[in-house]
């Protein structure tokens, strides 16, 4: 079945460091890909998405590119801030409006 | 702004109790979901609903049931709570923007942290 694999954390960085969180997927067809973020004590918020190959999603300085040839959707940010400390989930959806399939989540901790 | 609300942020129940978790969305979304979040396992789908009175099992439906009597409300029911159902429960909803493969954002509630003693 479809699945999402993301790098295990925790990831610990200093402020202004470069961030990469790897995400790969297994799916038939052409899924849409998402990154969600969960700040402490809160629900999930959509960070960015891409709906077809070579699309780049971006938001709040974060970027991810839908790479069909490598079945990947890695999350990057050039300069992290303490406020970026959160749990990041990579997810896919096979069809509009259907349930998301999530990776296990990666905890990011940024120190000043 | 779309809002998904859940009836409780924290809940403590005893083994064997019947537990109701309520979720309400205010954007007339067709589809609603219940996920369970556990450390190291990510989010797993329990049940979902595409319309009033319609429900479909997700990946881990055992020990749970759901009810959707009104479009805006989707309830998760633990018929007889057990300690292995101690978890964070997240409700989500999504509307359908129309055809053409467009995706709307799936909106999540703040979660209910349930502890079963």
Secondary structure layout plus pairing:
The complex is a heterodimer of chains A (112) and B (117).
Chain A: E1 3-6, E2 11-14, E3 19-21, E4 23-26, E5 32-38, E6 44-50, E7 56-59, E8 62-65, E9 75-77, E10 86-93, E11 101-102, E12 106-111
Parallel strand pairs in A: 2-12
Antiparallel strand pairs in A: 1-4, 3-9, 5-6, 5-10, 7-8, 8-9, 10-11, 10-12
Chain B: E1 4-6, E2 10-13, E3 19-25, E4 31-38, E5 42-49, E6 56-57, E7 64-70, E8 73-78, E9 87-94, E10 107-108, E11 112-116
Parallel strand pairs in B: 2-11
Antiparallel strand pairs in B: 1-3, 3-8, 4-5, 4-9, 5-6, 7-8, 9-10, 9-11
Task: Describe this protein's structure.
The complex is a heterodimer of chains A (112) and B (117). In chain A, 0% of the residues lie in helices and 50% in strands. The termini of chain A are far apart. Chain A has 112 residues and is mainly beta. In chain A, strand 10 and strand 11 form a beta hairpin. Chain A contains no helices and twelve strands. Chain A has strands at 3-6, 11-14, 19-21, 23-26, 32-38, 44-50, 56-59, 62-65, 75-77, 86-93, 101-102, 106-111. In chain A, the strands form three sheets. In chain A, strands 2, 5, 6, 10, 11 and 12 form a six-stranded mixed beta sheet that branches. Chain A has a four-stranded antiparallel beta sheet with strand order 3-9-8-7, with no helix packed on it. A two-stranded antiparallel ribbon of chain A has the order 1-4. Chain B is an all-beta fold. Helix content of chain B is 0%, strand content 51%. Chain B contains no helices and eleven strands. In chain B, the strands form two sheets. In chain B, strands 2, 4, 5, 6, 9, 10 and 11 form a seven-stranded mixed beta sheet that branches. A four-stranded antiparallel beta sheet of chain B has the order 1-3-8-7, with no helix packed on it. In chain B, strand 7 (64-70) and strand 8 (73-78) form a beta hairpin. Chain B is globular and about 40 Å long. In chain B, 35% of the residues are buried. The model of chain B has no long low-confidence stretch (mean pLDDT 91). Chain A binds chain B through residues 32, 36, 42-46, 49, 51, 89, 93, 96-100, 102-105, and chain B through 4, 30-31, 33, 35, 40-45, 48, 50, 58, 90, 92, 94-97, 101-106, 108-111.
């Amino acid at each position: 079945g479809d699945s999402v694999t993301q790098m295990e954390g925790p990831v610990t960085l200093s402020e202004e460091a470069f961030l990469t969180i790897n995400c790969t997927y297994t799916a038939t067809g052409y899924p849409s890909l998402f990154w969600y973020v969960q700040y402490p004590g809160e629900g999930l918020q959509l960070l960015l998405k891409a709906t077809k190959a070579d699309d780049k999603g971006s938001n709040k300085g974060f970027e991810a590119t839908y790479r069909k040839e490598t079945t990947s959707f890695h999350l990057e940010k050039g300069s992290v801030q303490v406020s970026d400390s959160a749990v990041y989930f990579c997810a896919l959806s096979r069809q509009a409006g259907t349930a998301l399939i999530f990776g296990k989540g990666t905890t990011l901790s940024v120190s000043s | 702004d779309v809002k998904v609300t859940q009836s409780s942020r924290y809940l403590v129940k005893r083994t064997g109790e019947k537990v109701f978790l309520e979720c309400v969305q205010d954007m007339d979304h067709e589809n609603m979901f219940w996920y369970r979040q556990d450390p190291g396992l990510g989010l797993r789908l329990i049940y979902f609903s595409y319309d009033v009175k319609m429900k479909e099992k997700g990946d881990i439906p055992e020990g749970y049931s759901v009810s959707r009597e009104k479009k805006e409300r989707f309830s998760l029911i633990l018929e007889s709570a057990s300690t292995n159902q101690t978890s964070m429960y997240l409700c989500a909803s999504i509307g359908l923007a129309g055809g053409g493969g467009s995706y709307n954002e799936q909106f999540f509630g703040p979660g209910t942290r349930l502890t079963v003693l």
